[in-house]
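Re: the 135-residue chain
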Amino acid sequence: MDMSDIFKPLIVQAGLMILIAFWLVWARVGSVIRGKVDMKDVAKNGWPHWIEMAGNNFKNQYELPLLFFVVCIVLFLTNSVTPLILGLAWFFVFTRIVHTLIHLTFNHIFTRFLVFFSGALSLTALVILTAKGIF
């Protein structure tokens, strides 16, 4: 296994973030262009709920995933990537993708929470294993 393999899930996560950014632009600009949203209404009342959800999901991508990026870089720099760590990294990214799909479609809160929490646990394990390798 190559230490640089840790960058594969990192790149997929970054790609997800870029995809959500484009989704948000499409949702906002597209809804205005199609006449579904009037900017005067947005100024008074904010975006419609479905567009607000896309914005919330985009903001959410800069919470746990930011820590994930840092951990991946530290793992690479310390030559600490193992098959277990790589599996946890891929699992984290998988949960972020599923979380996004839930958030932007049927948005069942409890299901979304379970997926989020599973990803948070895998990230916690990554942080602990990273710290164990450093200390």
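The radius of gyration is 18 Å.
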